């Protein structure tokens, strides 16, 4: 079987200042617009290309001793975090401590200086730390989700369920809320209570503010 090559370009590089003991990601100028929305304190996923392992010999290593310790039994590289793999891609979860121009300052990582960065993705608990969530991904109305400030509201699809009459509002999970990287689920009853609470807060805003915002559309 022949494989078509993929084209991956670096969006930046890992930089290490040993004198200052600092590690940061330097984003290339042509990709700086992609930084819009990142904030200090955000957790992100770094996708790196371990260029030092990008040789035919190292790409051909399919079993390793985990952590490089020969006393550990051999395992397939897919069951390890070894840099030796068919495609030398590395993943890190890091916190952005400081943003200065095109630099994202992060904690120390074991990647070498000048390691190419091929992508950066915001950390989302629902995807990156999966756990049992009452609403399955396929049941979510993703395109109907709304970002309001730092809150992502993702409703459940409204298709009719044959057994819906047997489900109480306390049991029916209606919406997922993502606040930053954190995820929580609200039942229909909790959603109603939240709406009523927010409406009450809105009506108690100073009248000058409400006049500028207009009436609630509900």
Automatic annotation (TrEMBL):
<comment type="similarity">
    <text>Belongs to the tRNA methyltransferase O family.</text>
</comment>
<keyword id="KW-0949">S-adenosyl-L-methionine</keyword>
<protein>
    <submittedName>
        <fullName>tRNA-Thr(GGU) m(6)t(6)A37 methyltransferase TsaA</fullName>
    </submittedName>
</protein>
<dbReference type="Pfam" id="PF01980">
    <property type="entry name" value="TrmO_N"/>
</dbReference>
<dbReference type="GO" id="GO:0032259">
    <property type="term" value="P:methylation"/>
</dbReference>
<keyword id="KW-0489">Methyltransferase</keyword>
<dbReference type="InterPro" id="IPR036413">
    <property type="entry name" value="YaeB-like_sf"/>
</dbReference>
<feature type="domain" description="TsaA-like">
    <location>
        <begin position="8"/>
        <end position="132"/>
    </location>
</feature>
<keyword id="KW-0808">Transferase</keyword>
<dbReference type="InterPro" id="IPR036414">
    <property type="entry name" value="YaeB_N_sf"/>
</dbReference>
<dbReference type="InterPro" id="IPR023368">
    <property type="entry name" value="UPF0066_cons_site"/>
</dbReference>
<dbReference type="InterPro" id="IPR023370">
    <property type="entry name" value="TrmO-like_N"/>
</dbReference>
<dbReference type="GO" id="GO:0008168">
    <property type="term" value="F:methyltransferase activity"/>
</dbReference>
<dbReference type="InterPro" id="IPR040372">
    <property type="entry name" value="YaeB-like"/>
</dbReference>
